[in-house]
Amino acid sequence: MTFKLKKPPVIEAWIQASLEPTPESEWSWEPVANVLQSFGGDLDVFEHMPSFSPEAKKFDKDNRPTEIQIRVEPRFLRVRNKQRSKVVQIGHNELLVNSVRQDDEHYPGFEALKGSFLESLDRYRERIPVLGVHSIELHYVDLVVIPGLYDEVRELDDIFVGAPRLPEDPFGVTISSSWSNTFVNPTSNVPIQLTIEMLAPDGQDGKFRMDWHCWCPEISGLDAESITSGLSVTHDFLLKCFQAVFKPDVWKLFDPLP
Q1: Burial class, 171, CB count within 10 angstroms (exposed 0-12 / middle 13-18 / buried 19+)
Q2: Residues 108 and 205: beta-carbon distance below 8 Å
Q3: DSSP 63
Q4: pLDDT band at 52 (very low <50, low <70, confident <90, very high)
Q5: pTM: predicted TM-score of the whole model, two decimal places
Q6: Which of 56-60, 78-82, 166-170, 215-219 has the lowest mean pLDDT?
Q7: Which end of the chain is more exposed for a tag (fewer CB within 10 A), N or C?
Q8: How far, in Å, CA of 165 to CA of 232, rounded?
Q9: What gap in Å lies between CA 30 and CA 76, rounded to an integer?
Q10: How far is CA 115 from CA 55, 155, 160, 240, in A?
Q11: Which helix (H) or strand (E) holds 213?
């Protein structure tokens, strides 16, 4: 399924892979740094997120710790551009490629994100031994703005298919709500989770955050064709659900092309 929107609400998207190392390999952060340094170009800001693990070094006669040492090591390393719109992040046997849409920036689309992920995976495999793929996940975050939502009384199910509605008596008007649904892709038999959260209003405009967490079907190999196939099946189902969750007048806000 394909469609084009002049005003897509997506603000962030990423692909995350959990990778299976070869049995003989030992994890080291040095080759991770080599992977990230290989990008160059506009990905020139290097960052790391540390983790802190307490470790007891000495104990008293009652086996209570008397000396604790804090061990500091990376939780993940990443490289990004200065605008923070592109990120490649590597954790312990994990690869994440993230695209964040800036206010004045055109959304590059799924094909660009998939291409960046495949390139990053190739760079990873060139420097870190990989036996296979445990899982691949596709995530999207949308920010949906409903102009003039508070100029009139509208229920959540006037905007979203399947949104909860409480009776006016005795609950009155709903001013905040969030809900989550998990369903199964009938083509791949893997789940997808959608969470919708009602945000603080912007004047009379309503704002909603939509988080899509999509699991890909089992990947049979490390080749680009197998990975692309799994991602495409997942993305196609996400597009169907994305269009189906909106009522027709809300869908028009995204200015779909004929």
Answers
A1: exposed
A2: no
A3: S
A4: low
A5: 0.88
A6: 56-60
A7: C
A8: 34
A9: 12
A10: 42, 40, 32, 22
A11: strand 206-215
